[in-house]
């Protein structure tokens, strides 16, 4: 299996749009769903687990069968996200979002076009309930950004 | 000669379909089972030749439809060995049947009484009794489950007392496939004067049911779990247990005479069949039961048993895999792999064309008791094959590797 | 261009059948209507391509079945102009829907309250309210019917008071075809703070229903009266009227969390859909409503109107014949011939291949009020033709001669 | 239409079996269901109406859509039946039975084989509910005979 690390990157992506494009490029290297899923799962595994004491009900986004916790902090005008899930696939999906939005300004996050996820081709392989959870997730991350925007 | 599932697969057009480019392996039969062509054609023929509203009609089609509907009741009574077709009440499903019984018992239960259910019950056999307990002030008690997914019969005996007015118990657990020796439970409950409702949703397609031998007061199941359509089910009610109970739904068919001041209610079974019933559903259900009985239910069950045992044996060496339920299971095989979420496992094996169910299987309290939020459940029907078991096993192993 | 029934007759295979050696003339459409091929094929295709249990399933078929089921809900919401698909609850029929509402209102009604129904109601819209009155001690009051089969609006206004908690009223009488201007009744009832349930069983196939325009709190009908199968029906419930009411049937789907101690209930519409619903029935119902809407409901209704008026005009010269209901009727034409029992008339015209209904049409109190035990009722659907009206008229005349 | 009166009868039927045979012979003259029905209807019309004050609940046999009243008296060792119905067709059917059983001894009535009605071909044209009512009727007539048998 070709791991994304092996792909030569010419310049480091900085903006949300650039990061989205990088993700899409990486995913496009994979032909079949197994590899794509494996890529997402591996992203999930790599995402730093959220400390158990942060996994509180107010940080919980309840999905159909799995649970997602989302936390954020604000420093130097940038938003930092932390997320976790009891489902590895869900966690991998969140990792996609975190990778794209983490370390950006509230304004950029609020203006970000999150429909890139439709171009990943992952959604076709997702149960609609999971796809819904993704939309919910993106919404929640923007909600957090709104809270910081005024500061 | 053992039953050969290949001989019937072409009766199920859906089994030839593909999922994600893979041939469908349908192992979610405990949720709902696929329908043979002969059942679908029965519904179709009904609409092409017979359809009319039943009872009270003078004209030819109405008489023909009524005769077909009542003949279906007779067949179903025969398959369950009911003492009379009047004991067969058409409902819209298991859940509807349980709610019917829970509601008509309202006046028979008082605040000091106890209602007994088991820890293996489906939400549909929990919530109506909770609601009955709330209405009446009675106490709901639960027969505990042991670590191996069987019920604790000793604890059940200790729970029984003259206060016990109803025992509601499943014949096979939908979450784990645990078979419950309901006959023993029924006779013990009867000994303290309690009525018994048997939830046969998961047993009816896998074993021959003899309501007289069981001596159940009430027994319920859904058509869609026994090769018939959704929207139809059966409540068997022993005449002596049912005849003095009040009606539930009011409307056409269930009454004899109506004035604005009062109504007199019809005889059994019509008293409990208000409004136009699912006419073709009842006819299709009788056909499905005929079909299964013609196939030979015991040999179908033996075949399913072999599939479950083979699957269990082949999965046993997957690292961290834990089975739920006892080693002898009926219909369903339920498991988890340590460190892997059942939802992830289910999602990946669905990608490989294998349809299983994941989650709590409408048994949250049972899952809580066993310390999990859910399991992966593969469940089997007459048309499943050994090759499909192999695909399941391979899919689980591949998914486990991906998620490890 | 007027609607031509001949253009759709070959979509109904049953219409080509013979009764007693005569081509069938099916004029019992108010009891149940025949189903077009496209509806039957929708059910069939569902089982050949999609069938799985809905909600909570991770696998492909389950997602597909859930999507199809929810799309059906959306279509039905669209046809009724509901504000949201969440206001569309699948039931097993009109009777089931009325009982659901009558039961969940139990806690909202007290002994001083009044429940209002009309003298035109079907037993299914009488008995559940009688039972509610019995449970709560409330009083059941009846809007009287005039000699011409219409309701007495003035008397209705006099009956209304702040005590009125619910009005249950039909939009079209099944016994006489009387159309009721329910919108006027609804606004008057709302003015005194009453809820209103509309029984649309007899109107839904003959007129476009706009629940927001009517401003009904609840509206119910059965699939089998609008070209869909039996065993499926709809309860429309306005969100604001329904959201604070308790659940009725308990079971799978209608709960969020279950512990043995208590359960939390799901949102609308799922709170009222316990257990596996009639999945393919809901999908077939949406298809039937699409089909009728594509045909053009207003022009179908105009065609039916013409048939009724022609039949009435042609029968008018039969000696001793009396029509029930007002001169403007919807769907049904009800009559008797002096000195002849409706049962005899129905029996003889059935021998001539013409299927009509005879008897009290599940409206015993209404029949009592008009001093008869029943009537002969011919009722019409999109596929009925002028030639069939002629056969009806000839059959009635011949039968009348034989019985004179 | 050929009326039964036109049929030449050689000797008057006396026993139940003879009367049954006579009825069957008469009905066999008719080709189509209309004539048979007309024959039954005419029998109904000819059956003496039962006085209204005898139409009491205890004499009522309730059918699905029509009502039947049955009365009997006993004189000279013979049973005499009176019957009526609000439905003319039902009344005609009862008239068939009355014609066959009226004026016979309780013993003969009890031993009578009432399955002749199946040979009339009328049942095929009857709604099952009506056919049931016929069976009920025959049963009731025998019940009455039992009450007189001991006297
Ligand atoms: C006006 C009316 N209400 C209610 C019903 C009962 O409908 P269902 O028997 O489908 O529940 C009918 C059907 O006969 C009807 O015509
Ligand atoms: C044991 C058991 N009881 C009850 C039910 C509920 O059946 P239905 O949803 O058909 O009403 C099920 C189905 O999932 C079941 O497995």
Automatic annotation (TrEMBL), chains A, D:
Occurrences of domain Fe-S metabolism associated (ranges): 25-143
Lineage, uppermost ranks: Bacteria, Pseudomonadati, Verrucomicrobiota, Verrucomicrobiia, Verrucomicrobiales
Similarity annotation: Belongs to the SufE family.
Pfam families to which the protein is assigned, alphabetical: SufE
Record-given protein name: Fe-S metabolism protein SufE
Coiled coil: none
Superkingdom per UniProt: Bacteria
Species assigned in the record: Roseibacillus persicicus
Gene of this entry: sufE
